Model the fold of this input.
Amino acid sequence: MSRTASSTVSVVVDGLLFTPEVDPSMPLLYTLRNTLRLRNPRFGCGLGQCGACTVLVEGRPVRSCQLPTAAVDGQDVVTIAGLPARWQAQLAKASGEPGLTDTTQHQSLHPLQQAFIDQMAAQCGYCINGWLMSAVALLEENPMPDRDAINQAFAGLKCRCAMQMRFRAAVEQVAAS
Amino acid sequence: MSALLHAHLTRRQFLLSGGRFLVAAAGFPVLSCTAIPSGVSATDAIASNNKFNEPDPAVLGTWIALDAAGRVTVYFGKVDVGQGLDTAIRQLVADQLSVHPRRIQVVMGDTELTPDQGGASSASGVEMGSLPLMTVAAEVKHILLSHIAQQWQCPFSSLHVEDGEIFCDTLPSQRSSYWTLIASDALDQHWLAHMLEVSGQGNSLNVTGQATVVPQAALSTDSWTGQSLARDDIHQKVTGEFVMIDQISLPDMLHARVIRPQVAGATPLTLVLPDDMINDVFIVRRAAFAALLGEDEWRVIMASRALQQTWQEPAPVFPGDSGLYDYLRNTPARMQRVALDQGAVDAVLAGADLSTADLSTADLSTADLSAADLSTADLSATGLSAADLAEAGPVLQAEYEWPLQSHASLGPACAVAVWDGQRMTVWSATQKPHQLRVGVADLLELELVKVHVIWVPGAGSYGRNDADDAGLEAAFLARETGRAVRVQYQRADATGWDPKSPAAVMRVSARLLADGSIAAMDWSALALSAHDARPSGAQASDSLIGQQLGLERPDTNNFSAPQDAYDLANRRSQWAVVPPPLRHVSPLRTSHLRDPQGPQVTFSSECFMDELAFVSGQDSIAFRLRHLGDERDAQLLRALATESAWSSRPSPNPHADLRTSLPVTYSLLPGDNWRYGRGVAYCQRGRQTRVAVVCELAVDIQTGRIKLLRLVVAHDCGRVINPDGLRQTIEGAVMQACSRTLFEQVAFDDRSVLSTDWFSYPILEMASAPDQLQVLLLDRPDMPPLGAGEAAHKPVAAAIGNAVFDATAVRMRQIPLRPQVVLDALNRAQL
Done:
């Protein structure tokens, strides 16, 4: 339990490059929240059991409370604040028109963010990172998931306000479009 | 000069000299809950504190401010815990003030900005909390229009307002607006110092002015009331812009971890940090309370894991979860209350002695009354004749068991506090900031005026969770250290130590007359108190830290009884409170969790109604309808029957192995082990809101697993303000109740709580959600709006239990209905 020497980690978060000097064994959650002051990922359990701290690492939903910061060295991390840009980049890539990423378009929401709003898929919203990021990753991999696939993608996520029906409806709304 | 008048003058002077009015006129208040930047400086917070302000509900400007830019701010002494209460408030205020709700900002739960309206409490946010705000909105409109009527020399009645623009029917060329008036010199600059008459306090705080509030029923058809205005906060929540309590950060702030006893009742002997940590982390210990503090949050967490601890452990005090119900049955109650006693229950149920029967697991127990001597019983108060009773059935009796359940908010509590040597400022997600303020003053022995509590949204709470404890501990540590302190509980601090929903054993007895109607019903509960920690943080002795510092708490007893409109000539309901196994610093302390005691009570009363319907071969809805004495409730049940395509038949389902025996054909479940059934339950909440629910489900008889298929809810909470928001609120209440019914139970042995995370305290996940959930709103435009956040939570467990019986002919009288529990019951019944 001795103090681990700090080291520099190089990580892109929501499109910006950061090189914090941190204890490399410290979970990514604390690097994001306390070192980089990006406080969207939330502390829910510190045990990887609820999803409130979920971010995308290289496109995959990851519990940042369990992942040592060193593990994201050289990798791409996205929080919910980075979803609009991620969506614009995907649109641009699909169309081959880089103009779509211009700043006027930059702030439009990811379709799943819009679907969560349309379906009123949050009460307190403390858990939202887990559901939203898992939904994004699911639809990027499987644009037409059935309910089993949705259940699998959402397995382990908790919502004490019990908005499960609406998270599912939001995914189905985007899948149907 | 009387003190009261003096206080009002002081308040007037405040309004004139840089207080709310001028602050608001320059823009929205700096320290409103939604406007706290995550890096707000401690100096700013303290500077703001020095503008001492005790919101006086008698002053109009305490409640509302308008500015020349066309914005309206209302100051609301309640808080939104996730159900969009502030959106409904904006609609209600918009209609009284005749402005678009987008102009309205609702500042909630700041003890220096908002009057004490009792905080989030008892689903009263709309039903009671909106009343003074509607009054002040109507009053402001009245004052401004009176001014215009005088200015234009036109009748008051000729004026009308559209989104703040003022028109006159008789002077079509004249135009003005609220905002023009505010900007002009024409208006008396002290107009918001206008006085109101105050009545009530807390939840019932209300004011009366000169204007008349337009009743909902008299609002025009294009009113905001009744429209599904979208919530602004959802957008902020999915984009990460919404600021919550865990994001509050002050300069020079210490992170704190509290050290809870590993064994209930233990007190710390030695707490020693490893040598390599003492430069980064230090211990604050007073009496039995201890915490670790440091500037680096992760280092403090590491230290809490590395801490070498020895504790003075008492003899084990808990009965263990498997001994809980025997503990309730065998421990002498410390108080009893008869909630209802009409007719002469004992005369009808005379002779029944089932005290030795195994009521929790056996088939419905019956007592043979042939030996009982009814000839001497006085039947005069029963409304029944000796002949009626001679033909009546036996006394039927059953017992139901409900476990301890955790509040289990998704985020462990977090709070931030700063002490400047004079005043304490606490940021907290408490549901009741004004009451927490009293508690902080109590704990720290400070004058109340020296404490400022600012509510910031946190993880959803549904009664008293751990937020008040965290707020008190942050305040204590801030004063001890002289630094800003952030307390962030870990998951085990939360699920292990948060207030629990009380366990209960409930017994119901009844007899049916020959025609299948109820001759008498006797309901009783043996329960832990729902006020073992009272529902607000106002008493430091109800908190963990208060008790660890040596405060003694008094006995405070609370439970409840069935709430419905069954019109029974002979009926008694009574509850008794059993003392807790550990009086202070207990991880099993009990308090309010969503419709406190409603799920427990209604599980027993509404399952028993089904049991009575079953033994007499009656349809469950028809059986309820024949006993309902209130047309509103009867309409509700009939509407539910129609909405759910209920077919009249007795339980159990004669074709339980066919999924087509349910009105909706669901996707095929794998295997042929599924049995299908439907159940209904109904109740009232405080004689206000009425709700009924049908549950359709399948039970896997090989594993005991329950698969929810469809829930249909019929809900009558008077006038509907925001249909979409109401549906979402009801849905959350219903789904959370599904979670409690199917999964939730505090595990504990003789000395510790063992369910301290999401593996050991499972809640409902996506795969367990039903295929469909339908909500039918019975809007009553002629009625005021009533509470909605809790009522739909009550009947769900009973509807599920009744549906399991319909599917399997096996009666479940114990919660939670985890697969093994169901399977054991099925095996006992040798299905």
